[in-house]
Write a structure and sequence with these properties.
Number of domains: 1
Helix content: over 70%
Length: about 300
């Protein structure tokens, strides 16, 4: 477990120590992040394609991922909406035009396509070629290092994180309800509880959860984790604008770890500048905890 924590936390914190105002460098890091993400997804798909009895396992992956996604996100919404009702804080005003959801959906589709491409190639050349062991882990280290640099240089001050009470409470509710949803999904699917908790701990960070769970339990469970977490991003694109006016914690919370990256433009457009500190605080928490929880829960033998 400690080795796994070092693998994911060391590059994150080393990256966070790097402060730069070089916009060209930061833009390059953003591009590198996307390339690394596509490589990771291709590797995961490739490993999936080389599984024995793949055709029999695909329905299991689909049903399991859907079960986790529906239960976890439903638990999230129940808990977060209850908090918004108990402690309401409606928006003072609604801002302008939303970013194109269809473009964001297209981007999510490209991620799925990369997994499918890897699976197809892996299936076609099965037995003729195999990737180096832990190849995805090496790529993940580079990706997490880049994420650390992003966190430091996106204007995220620890003061904004530590002193935003609503963001902290939203994060706690989100984490508890996610884990409860993962437990129930594991029970329904007859999986070990620690496996359900691990899959629930990605919080939408699919590039991290898919690799760590793939390394722990194989590409089938890595794929379940990936599609479970990717679904959060897709659902968020539509729920954030719908919830934002009267349920700001629910709108931000449903996005999970993506609150600091791909869904942040949606959050900012839907809620304006007044909701950004909440998104920053919540997003920081849901980006820091997944590496710890994923490594912890996936270290238990099943």
């Amino acid at each position: 477990m400690y080795e796994g924590l070092l693998i994911v936390l060391c590059p994150l914190f080393v990256g966070y120590l790097i402060k730069t105002q070089n916009k060209i460098l930061l833009t390059s890091i953003n591009h590198i992040l996307m390339i690394l993400l596509y490589i990771i997804l291709f590797i995961m798909g490739f490993s999936l394609g080389q599984l024995d009895d793949l055709a029999k396992k695909l329905p299991v992956i689909a049903i399991s991922a859907a079960t986790f996604a529906i239960l976890i996100q439903s638990f999230n919404l129940v808990g977060l909406i209850a908090y918004d009702r108990f402690s309401p804080k409606p928006l003072k005003k609604v801002t302008g035009e939303m970013p194109s959801r269809w473009k964001l959906l297209f981007d999510s589709g490209k991620l799925c396509a990369m997994v499918l491409l890897g699976a197809f190639i892996g299936y076609v050349i099965k037995g003729k070629f195999s990737l180096p062991e832990h190849a995805s882990t090496y790529v993940l280290v580079c990706l997490i290092f880049s994420v650390g640099i992003q966190l430091r240089n996106n204007g995220i001050a620890l003061r904004d994180v530590l002193f935003n009470k609503r963001g902290l409470i939203t994060g706690v509710i989100f984490i508890i309800t996610s884990l409860l949803g993962g437990l129930l999904a594991a029970i329904l699917l007859k999986l070990p509880l620690t496996q359900g908790l691990a899959i629930a701990s990605g919080f939408g960070w699919y590039s991290l959860s898919s690799v760590l769970i793939n390394d722990a339990w194989g590409p089938m469970f890595g794929s379940i984790a990936f599609f479970n977490d990717l679904s959060r991003e897709i659902v968020s694109l539509f729920l954030i604008p719908f919830l934002m006016q009267n349920h700001r914690s629910s709108a931000v919370g449903i996005s999970g770890a993506t609150a600091l990256d791909c869904t942040l433009p949606i959050i900012q457009k839907a809620g304006g500048i007044e909701v950004v500190p909440l998104a920053i605080s919540f997003g920081f928490i849901t980006n820091i905890l997944p590496p710890i929880l994923l490594v912890f829960f996936s270290s238990f033998p099943i």
